Each structure stands twice: as structure tokens, then as C-alpha cells.
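User: As part of a screening pipeline, I want to sanity-check one entry by hand. Below is the sequence and the SMILES for zinc ion. Please return the complex as C-alpha cells so I can compare it with the automated output.
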Amino acid sequence: MKLYLDPGHGGKDPGAQGNSLQEKHVTLDIAKRIHSILSNEYEGIQIKMSRTSDTSKCLNKRTNEANSWGADYFVSIHCNAFNGKAKGYEDYIYSELSDSSLTSEYQNIMHEEITKLNQLSVRRKKKANFHVLRETKMAAFLSENGFIDNDNDANFMKQASWRQKVARGHVNGIARAFHLKKKDEINPITLYMVIVGSFDSKENADTRVSKLQEKGIKAFVEPIMISNKHWYRVQAGAFYYKENAEAQVDRLENAGFKAFIWKA
Ligand SMILES: [Zn+2]
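Assistant: Here is the complex for your manual check:
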């Protein structure tokens, strides 16, 4: 899945301003957090950002770039401003799209996930004829994360922990809409256990554990039942990644122990 992530404004264009904040800084910070969470925690996603620093970039360049890259989803991050009294969160898709369009379905998911976490009052899901929504060939979404000229919303914007929650909400929406897999969920059940002998007497198993400990290897005895018979299995580590279990087997063999991997 290819995500084009667009922090609104930048460089000579500060965007909305208020409460000693500039929209371009808030949007870039949130977008960077989205990028970092997605790439740390999820598989199968490529991300391109319209900007990664405080630089100017016109709207045409942004949409052309997303179109020629062949993005699957365009997500534009913004903050609102109005009269100081208006506050809350709202989001947009292109005005010509129907409520049954895929883009609209994505908006429903994004709206739900973002508003679960962002602590702002919730305004409507909207449609508008904005350049980035109209000129993008792929599904496009624009979020307005609070009003920068509203004291309440601006106080949130100043907190890194709030910007992280907003980013997390966007990530949850994107992950849900595009069925992204979490990195940890690749092998949700498989554990690679390293076994260094099975014994029918507990004493022999304990002896093995102390011999391992002499070589600085941590191990413990696990009683198991195989065909109605008690066994005492010596385990020296359990790993989520096979490579790590294999490295442990090598380490044990170099220390003079026969070991094997047991997949559970
Ligand atoms: Zn904006």
C-alpha cells in the first residue's frame, strides 16, 4: 500500500496562525509522527511525504507527485482557523463523490478512529472542492485537526502527547481501511523455543541446567507429558524470531551442548 502523506502548507506559507502557533509546524509534526508510527509498527506500507521540513511546495507539485508515484491514498493534514470561537475536528473528501464511494467509506473509518483519540469536539464529515482532493487520482482525505485560533484547541496543539494521539488516530484509520498488518502479528502464535535435552528424571534435567549455568547460559526445566509419560525438558530461551533461536542453538553447540528448536 502506498500512502502519500501531505503536511499542509510550509516554508513561505505558514497556513493558519493563532495563539503563537503556525499551522505549518503543527501539520509537519503530526505527519512525521504518522510516518514514524506506520513505518515502525506496520508491514506492507510505503510512505512518501510532500515535505519533511519547513519548505514551500505548491499544491500542483504535491498532487502531481502523488499521481505519478501511483499512491493508493492521499492524506492531507491541516489545522483550521475561523473566529476564535469555532473549535473541534472535521474532515473532508472531494465534493463530487457520493456517500457510497470508496473514498467516503475510508472517510467514515478515518473520522471514527481519529475522533476516538483526539479529545476535540467533533464536527461533521464534509465534502469540498479543495485542490488536493480534486486533482488526486487516488482516494484523498483531508483532516482539520482543531482550530489554531481557539484557545482550547491551541492548548492541545502545543502538547506533543496530543499530537501523538492525533497521529495515532490517523494511523489506526489508515491501518483499518487498508487492512495493514502489524509487524508483531506476522507470527502471532509461533514461538521458537530452544531445547537442550529432555530427561525422564528431574535430577538429570537439573544437572543439565546447572552445567548450562556454569557456562553462563540461562535455562529452566519444564515438565511435559508425552504419550502418558512425564518428561523434564530443559529450555534455554524462547524467541519470536527464528534467526534469534538459531543463534542461540549455535551458541549452545559452541559451548558443547546439543540443542534444537521447538516451534510452539
Ligand atoms: Zn491548512
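Points to compare against the pipeline: Residues 99 and 105 are 8 Å apart (CA to CA). Helices lie at 23-41, 59-69, 102-117, 131-134, 151-157, 160-177, 202-214, 242-254.
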